[in-house]
Design goal:
164 residues; alpha+beta; 4-stranded antiparallel beta sheet; 2 helices
Amino acid sequence: MLTDQTLSPAKWYSSARLLGALSLALLVALLPGVSGCNSGAKGAKNSVSGKVTLNGENVAGIVSFVPSDNTAPKDSPIKPDGTYQIDDPPIGQVKILVKGMAAAAGGPAAPGGAKPPPGGPEMPSLPGAGKGATPPAKYASAASTPLSYDVKPGKQTKDLPLEP
């Protein structure tokens, strides 16, 4: 004898089919979000790249994008050909710092591209960092750099021609 509390086999089958269809629909809806976790392998969704020069010569060092809220900056070594690329930069207004190799190592920027004195700070191991001109000290601090940029979503180019 069936009561209102139990399901007949027909009602149970209908409920199970509905639950299965809903589960499948939920799985299909969530699948694109889960597969997006590996999208980093195909490259960054947002990036800024460009070339850093001083009087037409490639610069050696690091480019940093400092967000307006002074949260952690995003850095990129400058490659031997003067190019840089910052993947997933902070969106919005940023200050752009360009630090020479000595300043990047935590020491003062060496004037005229000279090497730090013996016993000075060791140079950091920066993949792709090359030889080139040393950027003027004014570009190494958020308080003194004249460079800024409004980063938008997507891939964009921002060349950095430095002035002495």
